[in-house]
Amino acid sequence: MSATRYRRFLKLCEEWPRDETKKARDLGTFLRQRVASAFREGENTQLADPEKCDQMYESLARINGNAYRQRFPRVRDTSFTGVTAEECRVLLSGSMQQSMDEEKKGLWKSLMERFSSKSPEDGPEKAPEK
């Protein structure tokens, strides 16, 4: 019976879209990793709780099939902030994350320069000789 569950999860992983802009933060990639770790032995894996496995599959299948989007349609394609789905996609992309990380480094460096007695470019201090 676990062979059937394994095949169903594999099919779900194939159908689940990947977002290449998010690289390591993509839900599809995470799902594939979790299925691989849960079914280490492939079709021969013995599951501790088959009912919980079935519930998890059904939940993921509903999300992938947009069941909740169809059941609860949105009036507008924006959030409460007024940001569209495309703008959110851009903000959450890997390139935007990388630029934010670079910006944080710049802020950290400027704070260090402001509060330290010497600039970081001077290099490490030498200990006084005895």
From TrEMBL:
InterPro entries: UQCC2 (IPR037698). One of its GO terms (cellular component) is mitochondrial nucleoid. It comes from Xiphophorus couchianus. Residues 96-130 are annotated as: Disordered. It is found in: Mitochondrion matrix, Mitochondrion nucleoid. Keywords: Mitochondrion, Mitochondrion nucleoid, Transit peptide. It comes from the Eukaryota. One of its GO terms (biological process) is mitochondrial respiratory chain complex III assembly. Residues 101-130 have a biased composition (Basic and acidic residues). This is Mitochondrial nucleoid factor 1. Its main location: mitochondrion.
